[in-house]
Fold this sequence. Notes:
Layout: H1 25-40, H2 45-56, H3 67-76, H4 80-100, H5 104-113, H6 126-139, H7 142-148, H8 152-155, H9 171-174, H10 176-179, H11 186-213, H12 218-223, H13 233-242, H14 250-261, H15 266-278, H16 285-300, H17 312-326, H18 336-343, H19 347-360, H20 365-379, H21 388-403, E1 408-414, E2 434-440
Amino acid sequence: MIKQTVSSNSPSSFDSSEPKSDLSVAQAQQIIFSFLLSIVNRWSPEDVLEAFTQLFISHSDSTDSEVVPALYAILFSNNQQEFKNTLKRSCYILVNNWEMARQFEAIQSLINIFQDPTLKRRTLSPTLKRLRQWVNNFAESSDFRELSLFTARFFEEKTINRPGEWVNQYSSYLLVSQYINVENPIEQREAARILSKRLKDKFKFELAMYTAHSQSSPSKQALTRNPTALGDGALRLIKAIVAKRGKYSYKNLARIFLDQTQDLNYENFKRNLPEYLFFTVKNYPITHDLKKQLQSRLILLYSEHNFERVDSSLVLRSCNRVIDYFMTEDRNQPSALFVMMLSQGNSLTLAIILLKLILISRGSLLYLEARIADLLAYYEQFPRDQCGWVINFLEIFRVTFAIYADNVEYNLIKVKNSPRPDNRFPEQVDWEAFRVYSQMLDSSDVNLEDI
Length: 451
C-alpha cells in the first residue's frame, strides 16, 4: 500500500532545487489533513503510521501525489509556527480517530515515531535540515507533552520518584485544559474530552470494585487492586463520605441552600455562602480563620451587583472565584489558602468545600478541573516524595467526586452493634461496624480491557 521510498539522506530529497508550489499554506494544510482523514479509517494503523513517517520523518514519497508538494509549500513558506500547527493537527486527526476506535497501541506508536533516530542525522539538503529541525523542535515543545498525555493508560502506574512522572496518574485532569482551550484543533479537544472521561470512568469502576471486594474474603481481596494511593485509609474515607445521608447529605444541603437563596439579592447570597460551605465542617481553629478570610474576600466580589437578585450567572461566577481562592488565583502557583489547608492536614475539608461548590454550580466542574490541571503543572517540577500532602489531597478529591458521580451509587450498611453514626461528624464513628456497598448505575460503556 505504501510506495517505495527514496533515500532520506539524498540531497535531492526535499532539496531547495525542487520547484516551489503555487499552493498557499492554508491550501497545503487542507491537502495534508484531507489525506490523513481519508486513510485513518480505511487503512490499518500500521500503514497509516508508515505513511505519516514517510511524510514527516523519512521525508520521502507518499501514495498520494498531492501530499508531498503540499508539505513543500509549507516548508518553503519558512513559517515554523504554521508547520507546527500542521504537524500538531495531523497528529490529533490520527489520535482522535484511533481513540474512538480504541486503537490505543497505535497512539503509543505515533508518539514513539518522534524518537526516530533519522531525525538526528545530518543532511546536505537545506530544506531537509529545516524539516528535521522543526520536527525536533515540536518533539521538545509543550504541544508534544500534551500529545503524550494520550498514552496515559500505558504509564499511569508509574511511581518512579522523579520530577513529573507522578503527575501522569492524574492525566484525566491535565486533559481538561486541552479540551476547554478553544485555540486547540477540534480534533485535539475532542480526543482530550473522550480520553479524560474514559480515565475517570476507569477510576470510578475500579474504586467501586475495590469497595465491593475489599470487604469480602481474602481471595477476592487479592484479586482487586486499590486504585488510590491512600492504602487502607481509602475504605475508611469512602465510609465517612457515604455516611452523609438524610437531611445532612451534601446534595440535600445544596438543594436547601439554593431554595433559600433564590430570592435574595447578591449581597445576602454572598453573606450566606460561607455559612453553607462550612456547615457540618469540624470546628478546628483553622476553620474559623478560613471562613473569616472567605467572608472578607466575598464582600468586595462583584459588589456592583450587590442589590440585584442573584441569578445562575452570578452563582457560577462567584463559585468560580471561590475555587480560585482555594486553589490558584494566578493559574501558575497554589493559592495561600490551598497551601495553608493542605499543610495543616485539611485535605478532606477542602475536598468537601469544593464538592459543595459544584453541587450548587454544576457548570463550575470543568473550571475546577482546569485549576487542578494548573496545580499539577506547578507541582510536576518536584519529585513525588516532596509532594505527599498534595498527592493526598488529589486522592481524596477524586475519591470524593467519584462517590458523587451520576453513574455510581454507594450505600452504608450497619453490620455490628455500634452507636448510630452522627451524620454531621462521621469521622468519629467506628467504621468497622459498617460495610459500604457500591453499584455502577450505567457501566455499559466501561470495559477495563479498553481503558
